Amino acid sequence: MRTTRPRARAVAVLLLGAVAALVLVGPAGPATAADGEDRQTIRVGTEGTYRPYSYEDGGRLTGYDIDVMRAVADEAGLDVDFVEGGFDSLFPELDAGRIDAIANQITINPERASRYLFTRPYTYSRGVIVTAEDNDDITSIDDVRGKRAAQSETSNWAEVARDAGADVQSVDSFAQQALLLRNGQVDVVINDNIAVLDFLASQRDPGIKIVADVDDEISRQALVFRKDEQALRDRADQALQRLAADGTLREISEKYFKADVSVEDGGEADPEGTGGTTSWDLVQEAAGPMVWGAIKGTIPLTVISFVVGLAIALVTALARMSSSRWLRAPARVYISIIRGTPLLVQLFIIYFGLPQIGIDLPSLVAACVAFSLNVGGYAAEIIRSSILSVPRGQFEAATTIGMDYRQTMRRIVLPQASRIAVPPLSNTLLSLIKDTSLASVVLVNELLREADKVAQNAGNYMALYLLAAAYYWVICFVVSVGQGRLEKKLGKYSV
Amino acid sequence: MTNLVEVTGLQKAFGDNVVLRDVGFTAERGTCTALLGPSGSGKTTVLRSLNVLETPEAGVVRIADAEVDFGATVGRGERARQVRRLRSRSGMVFQSHHLFPHKTVLANITEGPVQVQKRPAAEAEEKARALLEQVGLAGREAAYPSQLSGGQQQRVGIARALALEPEVVLLDEPTSALDPELVGEVLAVVRDLAQQGWTMIIVTHEIRFARDVADQVLFLSDGVVAERGGAEVLTDPQEERTRRFLSRVLEAG
Fold it and tell me: Partner of B10 for a Cys bridge, out of A314, B59, B76, B191, CB 3.0 to 4.6 A?
């Protein structure tokens, strides 16, 4: 293809352009602090899986913190837009400027107070020590030393456990922590008394118990803002003050806890819990939202990433086969990086890393970029080897009838290569469908995350993860049937 | 008669292996030139140099009004233009046909005229049907190459080359990949073309065929044209190398 250099070069320029465009798309994220008083909408991070503070009930976000936050926004004249994510992603999200505040029982401590802005507290709670029901080794905080504890890595309770000498393992939600506790995989969990009481009231057979308070100290939870959000924090703080004064906070609290936790001595909380749900209840509850998660998350994410990824792959493959070193080298480096690093790390770099250098992508866009680049790297080699497997004589025949590089590729080589490429590309697609579940960690509301939310709230994983697996299997099955048909169609000329 | 094809001073090496030392010849319009020689003598390389599937290091190839001087220093864009022009003057028939497997017989033939020469599809199809009839394949328009026999495939290959209405048809051992019983049908088509006055240059091992059809025989050996003449070269060779080659081939045949 000696005579085709200029074409290949143009193609490579396109490749670089496409990648650049992908990376740069939408750095114009929602406004940040500069807007100050004028802002209409406040984005608030919350777990959505932390009963009774922040959880979903029939697909609708609710809970004490949620109600408080809504009341605060209402009082302060703001619209509120909740962003759900695992606890350990909340502070990174806040740092990245993707959310403006967190409403998730964030305990005020000196370390956080030095880095963030707190409002006045709206919850007073106690830390309690939780163990498996049949564990009698631990009766006070002094017994925690040397024991295995499960905590959210970035939570206040993780620090308390660590200070008490526990070996802390990072586990995101309380429901998962409770499960590990019951299974004997960890010995102890320290958490907020109300969350634990609610959990106990929500399980038919919780298998865990509260053994003691951490100490006499009352911990205080408040809304938290970034340091540069002074004006916004002040508005929320004043609103909270008014809500406390007019009894709104007490009302909300009593609705959930039959006590007022918004003041220091408001009585012993007694959360209602769910009274226990069966796996069948949960499956029914999750089935619908999971279909929506597939339709609004998994499937568009897959389709967009696959199409964009294939375009990147084609350009990369052509660059990789170019006679110009300046095209080959970057293509090779790109493929090497994509294939040599974990997809999850790529996703984290794009979602959590890029905002630090000013490129702030919404979660769905970030996931699309990550998956597209990933597909591009893998499919490039598939396309390249498919093109190489088209006999040389086909290039020569096209050349002798006068075709140029583009015509040869488009009309002669790629149609033949595509048939060779269909089976391996189908594998890429099937992998992609399953890999999109990783997007749940960057808060894309896809299939697994919808299952996860229900599972976390109920502390029941088996039924919902099996259901999620079944959903993925069905999607993959449909795709593989489609693959068979496509192969048949493309292969009609070889009898 | 004027020389339609003119080749002078062609040189080509693959690494250390010098294939063409200094090849030159001419071919008149409407004649059939047979290129013969032992394997490795460079006859296929000569043929592939005529449409620049191989790029010689030096030498000049001219077909009709298109000329490329491979030894000359010209810009890349200018060279590409020259090469494109030269290529458009010839049609190529490959040893193993290289038909496009994903296209029907008809589409194989119309691909060049429609996509490259931008002729109307209807006109190109009409012409393709006529060509198929000429090569004895009327009615097989909708077949895919894989549904044809080797001889039929090669005849489609010939039709594809003719569809571009080239000045000269280049045939690279068109029968050597075929089963013996299929050779005859392809040679009959080539013979037919010669009678119609197509200018052809054919690399072949079919001595008897060359004797019957060729107006000019070129015997290549060690990278040069060792002997050149009419068909009588094959019955009464002057060169010792030619004689040895012929006796070997005829014995084997």
Answer: B59
> For residue A400, which residues of chain B lie inside 8 Å, CB to CB?
51, 53, 87, 90-92, 161
What three-state secondary structure class fits A459? coil
The count of domains in chain B is: 1
Q: Is the pLDDT of residue A38 over 80?
A: no
Q: Is the dihedral of CA B206, B212, B214, B217 positive or negative?
A: positive
Range of the domain at B126: 99-165
For residues A69 and A103, the answer to whether their CB atoms sit within 8 Å is: yes
For residue B147, which residues of chain A lie inside 8 Å, CB to CB?
495
Q: How many contacts does A have with B, using Cβ atoms within 8 A?
A: 70
A423 touches chain B (CB under 8 A): no
pLDDT at residue A30 in the model: 41
Cβ of B147 under 8 Å from any chain A Cβ? yes
User: Once rounded to an integer, what is the mean pLDDT over residues A378-385?
Assistant: 95
Q: Is residue B192 part of a domain?
A: no
Contacts of B77 in chain A (CB under 8 A): 6
User: Does residue B142 form part of some domain?
Assistant: yes
Nearest chain A Cα distance for residue B31, angstroms: 21
DSSP chain B: --EEEEEEEEEEEETTEEEEEEEEEEEETT-EEEEE--TTSSHHHHHHHHTTSS--SEEEEEETTEEEETTS---HHHHHHHHHHHHTTEEEE-TT----TTS-HHHHHHHIIIIIS---HHHHHHHHHHHHHHTT-TT-TT--GGGS-HHHHHHHHHHHHHHT--SEEEEESTTTTS-HHHHHHHHHHHHHHHHHT-EEEEE-S-HHHHHHH-SEEEEEETTEEEEEESGGGGTS--SHHHHHHHHHHHHH-
Tens of pLDDT, residues A392-431? 999 999 999 999 999 999 999 999 998 889 899 999 999 9
Which residues pair with residue B74 across a beta bridge?
A: none
- Pick the closest to residue A432 from A389, A486, A475 (CA basis): A475
Nearest to B146 among A3, A397, A494 (CB): A494
For A21, the 3-state DSSP assignment is helix
- Look at the block and give the residue holding tokens 């040189």: B11
Considering only CB atoms, which chain B residues are within 8 Å of A415?
102
- Choose the closest CB to A400 out of B51, B99, B117: B51
Contact B91, B53 (CB under 8 A): no
Given a contact cutoff of 8 angstroms between Cβ atoms, the answer to whether A73 and A119 are in contact is no
Asked, for residue B74, whether it belongs to a domain, the answer is: no
Minimal-distance CA residue of chain A relative to B164 = A401
Residue type, B97: H
Report pTM: 0.75
pLDDT mean over B164-190: 93
Hey, is the C-beta of B143 within 8 angstroms of any chain A C-beta?
no
| Smallest CA–CA distance from A490 into chain B, residue | B102
> Cβ A399–B90 below 8 Å, yes or no?
no
Helix H or strand E encompassing A384 = helix A363-388
pLDDT tens digits for B134-147?
999 999 999 999 99
Phi, psi of A61 (to 5 degrees): -70, 130
B87 closest CB neighbour out of A394, A400, A411: A400
Number of other residues whose CB lies within 10 A of the CB of residue A128 = 21
* Residue A412 forms contact with B (CB below 8 Å): yes
Q: Which residues of A touch B160 (CB under 8 A)?
A: 401
